[in-house]
Amino acid sequence: MSKGKILVTGGTGFIGSHTTVELQNAGYDVVIIDNLSNSNADVVDGIERITGVRPVFVEGDCTDISTLTRLFEQNPGIQGIINFAASKAVGESVQKPIMYYRNNINILLNLLELMPRFDTRGFVFSSSCTVYGEPDQNPITEDAPTKKATSPYGATKQICEDIIRDVIRSGSPIKAILLRYFNPIGAHPTAEIGELPNGVPQNLVPYLTQTAIGIRKELSVFGNDYNTPDGSCIRDFINVCDLAKAHVRALDRMLNNESDDALETFNIGTGQGLSVLQLIDAFQRATGVEVPHRIVGRREGDIEQIWADPYRANHILGWKADTSIEDTMRSAWKWQQRIRERGLM
Ligand code: WQD
C-alpha cells in the first residue's frame, strides 16, 4: 500500500537520488523530473537496482511551467514535493548570477503556483547552511541571524526561503519545511549511486577520492592559518543517506499533520565540527589509502567554521544523523572505485 505520490525535482542528482531511494524504502511512490544538466538518466537504473522499484522519470526543465503542468496532469495525486532542482555551484554562481537567479527562483515560483491547483500539500525545500554566512558562534541554531550571502548561490537560497514564507503568509493552503543542509558527503553503501560531479570537483570529498584513486595528482588544502585547532576550516559533514532520511521525516510530518505550523525550519547536520585535515585523516584511517595533499592559500569566499546545533531536527522532527565519518568515507571510496570499474571516469 503506497503512502502517497511524491514529486522529486532534481531527482537524478546527488541528494535527490539518495532521497528517492529512502522515499521508496518508506513506501512512497516517486515521480522524478530532471533536466539532466548536472546528472544522467543512468541514475534511475541505479535507484531501481537498490530498491527494486523504478521511479517514474520525466526529463524536463522545471523553469518551464507548461512542462510542470503537464507532469502534474499526467501524474495525478501528487501529495508532496521535494525540490532539489537548482544550480548549486558557489563559484559558478559568482560568474553567472543572472542564470542562477533566473533558474533557482523561477523553479520555485512555478512549483508554488501549481501546488494549490493540484491539491499538493507538502513542500520540502532544499536549503543550505550557506544562508547563515560566517556564524558569530557555533554550533549554530535555526534562529541565528542570516547574514548577507557571500555568493549569488547563497542569495538564491535566502530569497527562496523568503518567497516560501511570503506565499504561506498570503494564505496559500500549502505546508513547507525548510531543510538547511550542512555539508553532504558520501554515497549509498551499495555504491549503485553517489556524487558524480561534472569536470573538476569543487567540493572537498569528490576531489579527495579522485586524488586517492589517482585521477588528481594532489589535493590542495585551502589554508591552514584559520583560527581553528589545526588551522584548517571546520565543517559539519553529513552522510548523504542520513540527510535523505531527514526528507522522508519532513514529508511524513507534513502529510500526517504532525505540526500546526505551516512553515518550519530545521538544521540538518551531525552537530559535530570536523576540520579539513581531520577529514583527510579519517579517510586515510578508514580506507588505508593515502591521499597526497598540500597546504595552499585560502579559497576566496570560504568561511572559517560552521557546524549545526541539530536539537530541533533531533527532538522535533525526530531525525538524527547516525552514520560514522569512517563509514561515510568508506562509502565514498567504494563509490569512487565503482565509477572507475564502470568507466565513468
Ligand atoms: C569544504 C571545505 C574548503 C575543496 C559548499 C556550499 C554548500 C554546499 C556544500 C550546496 C572548505 C575545503 C575544498 C578542495 C579544500 N553546497 N576544500 N580543498 O564550500 O563548505 O560548501 O558545498 O548545497 O552550500 O557552500 O564545501 O566541499 O567546497 O569545501 O581544502 O579541493 O573543504 O576550503 O573549507 P563548502 P566544499
Topology:
Layout: E1 4-9, H1 14-25, E2 28-34, H2 42-51, E3 56-59, H3 65-74, E4 78-83, H4 90-95, H5 97-117, E5 122-128, H6 152-169, E6 175-181, E7 183-185, H7 204-212, E8 219-222, E9 234-235, E10 237-239, H8 240-255, E11 263-268, E12 274-275, H9 276-287, E13 293-296, H10 311-317, H11 325-341
Parallel strand pairs: 1-2, 1-4, 2-3, 4-5, 5-6, 6-11, 7-10, 8-13
Antiparallel strand pairs: 9-12
The chain binds UDP-4-deoxy-4-formamido-beta-L-arabinopyranose.
Jot down its keywords.
alpha/beta; seven-stranded parallel sheet; binds UDP-4-deoxy-4-formamido-beta-L-arabinopyranose; Rossmann fold
In a few lines, what is going on in this structure?
The protein contains 11 helices and 13 strands. The protein is an alpha/beta fold.
Please explain how this structure is put together.
- The protein has helices at about 15-25, 40-50, 65-75, 90-95, 95-115, 150-170, 205-210, 240-255, 275-285, 310-315, 325-340, and strands at about 5-10, 30-35, 55-60, 80-85, 120-130, 175-180, 185, 220, 235, 235-240, 265-270, 275, 295.
- By secondary structure, the chain is α/β, with parallel strands linked by helices.
- The strands form 4 sheets. A 7-stranded parallel β-sheet has the order 3-2-1-4-5-6-11, sandwiched between helices.
- Helix 1 (about 15-25) links the parallel strand 1 (about 5-10) and strand 2.
- Helix 1 packs across helix 8, helix 5 (about 95-115) runs parallel beside helix 6 (about 150-170) and helix 9 (about 275-285) packs across helix 11 (about 325-340).
- UDP-4-deoxy-4-formamido-beta-L-arabinopyranose binds next to helix 7 and strand 8.
- The site of UDP-4-deoxy-4-formamido-beta-L-arabinopyranose has 19 residues, from helix 7 and strand 8.
